[in-house]
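pasting for ref
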Amino acid sequence: MTQFQDITYEVERGRARITLNRPHRHNAITEQMGHEIERALWEADDDTSVHSVIVRGAGPSFCSGYDLGAYGDHSEPRGSRRGRADFDDRAWQLEKMQRPLRAFHDMHKPVIAQVHGHCLAGGTGIAMFCDMVIAADDASIGFPAARAGTLPNQMWLYSAGPQWTKRLMLTGDTVSGADAALLGLVMKAVPRDLLEAEVEGLADRLAHVDIDLLSANKRIINIGLELMGSQVLQRMAAEMDTRAHLSESTERFLGAIGRLGLKPALADRDAVFGDGRARVSVPEVRNREGRLVDTDTEEEARS
């Protein structure tokens, strides 16, 4: 069995479990982790004892996104034009980051994402490429990085539809796991203490089905997604994110990271958005700091 550094991999009772294993960084994705996820997926696909794959995160979060420090600062000019990094170079780098995720789509066996805690930015790319997503109802799901770019792995549209995808992408706001289930962004949300049992129960049921039948059913549904442009959209998403990173506001944000460090730059970027949360089925009443409040009265909302 392959040895891994940033993930763990185990096979038991007809399922493979891939655990993102950088809990001290909320499982932020490194290039190493991306390649290890891809290798583990193909290893599970080749193992005839495996009927499904569970992807989960160690520690307090599923995945907080890409580890910007590990990937380096792509704002540095390489073959620069007018002081800006070359467009093709940026797109090339983003497409390289995409490649490991294609394995979720291309492998034959179903993959279940078990989401808890933060599932943000690039972490949503991992989750949305899985075949089914089950989340803790108090999970936080979103793409705050949309305030300085776009999502380079765009599967949200096929689950949440255009309006809510725009609502969340245009603001970078997050939703709870419970609200994500209302949107169809995840398949189901359950209390956190029942999350593992829910996912494992689904894997139990999949273990009763012939792997060739699982493959046939997954493949025809994914062919339908391909006919709807899902794979072409991934290439276009990388190019659109490259375009977004050439905006003046994004260049200012990247410069702030260099001057202040990542956490202060993020705090400054996100300050005007308050708690950065959205609500799906009830009004969004906010106080003066932009934080959601549980009240129907205007007086309390203004306090």
